[in-house]
Specification:
With 122 residues, this protein is α+β, with helices and mostly antiparallel strands. It has helices at residues 54-62, 67-70, 106-117; strands spanning 9-12, 15-21, 26-33, 36-44, 73-77, 81-86, 89-94, 97-102. It is globular.
Length: 122
């Protein structure tokens, strides 16, 4: 769900979040884990153009150590939480509870990819 800006706080099926102002132009997003607010990411409100992201997109696609080059990963929000699928596991978050299942066969990954994301790989 959207967070109120600039100083919003929200509790939804995926967790408890808040936005905090760092300075005039910068903010951070934190998620409450146990009893501690953990930083998820920082951002600024400086306007950007799509071209500003070209170098990082190129890097993520071509750098041999990039997570996007070394494993398959897919995530989708659901009505009750989130489903995340990676090479060797499926994580289902429902109502704040995470259940991780290790996948034993490649065929399981392809089946779940089709089931949750309607993606068929040949």
């Amino acid at each position: 769900m959207p967070l109120e800006f600039p100083n919003g706080e929200l509790r939804d099926v995926s967790g408890h979040y808040k936005i905090s102002r760092i300075n005039e132009n910068e903010y951070d997003l934190r998620r409450k884990e146990s009893y501690e607010w953990k930083l998820q990411y920082k951002f600024s409100i400086t306007p950007r153009k799509f071209a500003d992201y070209e170098d990082m997109c190129e890097y993520q696609q071509t750098f041999p150590g990039s997570i996007f080059r070394n494993r398959m990963i897919c995530a989708i929000a659901t009505q009750t939480g989130r489903v995340t699928l990676s090479n060797s596991s499926q994580t289902v978050t429902e109502g704040g509870t995470k259940t991780k299942t290790e996948l034993k066969h490649k065929e399981e990954f392809y089946h779940l990819l089709n089931k949750y994301f309607q993606i068929k790989l040949v």
